[in-house]
C-alpha cells in the first residue's frame, strides 16, 4: 500500500458487549490511531447504538423482524450487513474484514454474487451446532475467506489440523488504563455486590463458560468462606442459553443458594460499559474456567484491574499464561476449581503483580495488534486482491 492509509471495513455481529465485538471496537480504535480509515459495520435492532463509543465511523445495519429461532435471527443479520455494505459502497474499501460467522457469510454471499472481490476473516473460536444450516454458515464464513486470522496459536493449529486452513496469528490486546480506572463507582452497590469475598465471572450463564461447574465449586468454597458471593456479569449473547440457565437456577436452589441482589449469587445480565471495570476492581478473584475460548480476554482485563484470576488449565490459556500470573484449575473438576479459588483468595494466589503481570500485559497491546493487522492487510491487498475499481 506504499505507506498510504487503507480504507478498512470491520464487521461484527452485534452492538452488544461480547468478546468479538470488544475486539472489533478496540482493533478499530487502534487502527484509527495508527492513521487508517476505519468503518465498523454492525447489525442493530431498533436502532440500538453500539454499546461503546468509537472514534471510527460506525454504520448500523437495521435488522428486519424475524422469527424467534436462531436460524431466522442469523439470516436477517446476514441480510442486514449485505444491504448496509452495498448501500455504503463496497468498492470503496481496500479491506473487508469479518470477525464472526454472521458477517463472514454476508461477505461470502456478496463475493459469490460478484459484488466484492474478497474478504478476510478472524476466527475467535468455533461452536458446535445441531442445526445443519448453522453448521454450514459457520464453515462457509472461514472456508470462503481469502485470508484467515486467529487470536491464539491454539486456534491457528486447530484450523490447520482439523479444517485444512492456514491461518495467521493476530494477538488480542487489553486497554490497561480502562481497567485501572474505577469505572462506575456506584455499580457494585446498585447490583448488591456485598460479598466477603466476591468471586466474579464475566460472560453470563453458558455451557461454554462452564457456569454449572463454577456453581458447584462456589458451593464448596462457601464451606470455608460462608459469606462468599458469586457475581455472574454480562451475558449479551445471540445464542439460546435458556435451557442451560434453567439447569443453573435449579441446581442453585438444590444447593440452597439464592439468586438476586445482595444474595449469595448475583446474575447481572448485560451491563453498562463502565460497570465491568468497577466489578473487576471490586472482585477478590475473577474466575475464567471456560471449556472453550478463542483467547479469553477477560483474564488480561482482570489482571489489569489487579484481580487474581482462576483459569482453566487448557489451551488457549496455557499458551500465554503460567503459574506466575494465574491460579490453574481443571475445568471438569469442581473441587479443583474450588481449591484454585481458595489459593487465589490466600495471598492473591502468589501471583506476581509486580513483575510478571506487567510483562504479560505489555505483550498484548491493541497498538501491537493494529501493527500486525496492518502488515497482514497490506500483504493481502498487494498479493491476493486489489480493491474494486483498481
From TrEMBL:
Biological process terms in GO annotation? lipopolysaccharide biosynthetic process
Q: CDD domains per the record?
A: GT4_PimA-like
Residues of the Glycosyltransferase subfamily 4-like N-terminal domain = 18-176
Q: Which UniProt keywords apply?
A: Transferase
Q: Which InterPro entries match?
A: Glyco_trans_1, Glyco_trans_4-like_N, GlycosylTfrase_MSMEG0565
Signal sequence, renumbered to the chain:
none
Citing just one GO molecular function, the answer is:
glycosyltransferase activity
Q: Where is the Glycosyl transferase family domain?
A: 195-348
- The yes or no answer to whether the keyword Transferase is present is yes
Know the name of this protein? Group 1 glycosyl transferase
The species this protein belongs to is Paraburkholderia hospita
Amino acid at each position: 500500500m506504499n505507506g498510504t492509509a487503507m480504507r478498512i471495513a470491520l464487521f461484527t455481529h452485534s452492538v452488544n458487549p461480547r468478546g468479538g465485538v470488544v475486539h472489533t471496537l478496540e482493533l478499530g480504535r487502534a487502527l484509527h490511531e495508527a492513521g487508517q480509515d476505519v468503518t465498523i459495520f454492525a447489525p442493530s435492532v431498533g436502532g440500538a447504538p453500539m454499546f461503546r463509543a468509537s472514534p471510527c465511523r460506525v454504520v448500523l445495519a437495521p435488522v428486519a423482524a424475524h422469527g424467534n429461532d436462531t436460524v431466522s435471527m442469523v439470516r436477517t443479520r446476514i441480510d442486514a450487513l449485505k444491504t448496509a455494505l452495498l448501500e455504503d459502497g463496497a468498492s470503496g474499501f481496500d479491506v473487508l474484514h469479518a470477525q464472526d460467522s454472521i458477517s463472514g457469510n454476508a461477505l461470502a454471499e456478496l463475493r459469490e454474487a460478484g459484488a466484492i472481490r474478497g474478504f478476510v476473516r478472524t476466527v475467535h473460536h468455533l461452536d458446535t451446532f445441531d442445526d445443519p444450516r448453522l453448521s454450514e454458515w459457520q464453515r462457509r464464513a472461514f472456508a470462503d475467506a481469502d485470508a484467515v486470522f486467529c487470536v491464539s496459536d491454539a486456534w491457528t493449529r486447530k484450523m490447520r489440523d482439523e479444517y485444512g486452513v492456514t491461518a495467521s496469528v493476530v494477538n488480542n490486546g487489553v486497554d490497561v488504563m480502562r481497567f485501572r480506572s474505577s469505572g462506575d463507582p456506584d455499580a457494585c452497590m446498585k447490583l448488591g455486590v456485598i460479598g466477603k469475598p466476591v468471586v466474579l465471572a464475566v460472560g453470563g450463564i453458558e455451557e461454554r463458560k462452564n457456569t454449572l461447574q463454577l456453581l458447584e465449586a462456589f458451593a464448596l468454597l462457601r464451606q470455608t468462606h460462608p459469606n462468599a458471593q458469586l457475581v455472574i456479569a454480562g451475558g449479551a449473547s445471540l445464542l439460546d442459553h435458556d435451557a442451560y440457565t434453567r439447569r443453573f437456577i435449579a441446581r442453585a436452589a438444590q444447593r440452597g443458594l439464592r439468586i438476586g441482589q445482595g444474595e449469595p449469587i448475583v446474575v447481572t445480565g448485560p451491563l453498562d460499559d463502565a460497570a465491568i471495570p468497577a466489578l473487576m476492581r471490586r472482585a477478590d478473584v475473577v474466575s475464567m474456567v471456560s471449556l472453550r475460548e478463542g483467547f479469553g480476554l477477560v483474564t488480561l482485563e482482570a489482571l489489569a484491574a489487579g484481580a487474581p484470576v482462576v483459569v482453566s488449565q487448557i489451551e488457549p490459556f496455557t499458551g500465554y499464561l503460567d503459574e506466575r500470573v494465574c491460579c490453574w484449575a481443571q475445568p471438569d473438576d469442581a473441587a479443583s476449581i474450588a481449591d484454585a479459588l481458595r489459593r487465589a483468595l490466600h495471598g492473591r494466589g502468589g501471583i506476581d503483580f509486580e513483575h510478571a503481570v506487567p510483562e504479560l500485559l505489555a505483550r498484548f497491546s491493541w497498538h501491537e495488534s493494529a501493527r500486525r493487522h496492518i502488515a497482514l492487510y497490506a500483504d493481502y491487498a498487494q498479493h491476493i486482491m486489489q480493491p474494486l475499481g483498481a
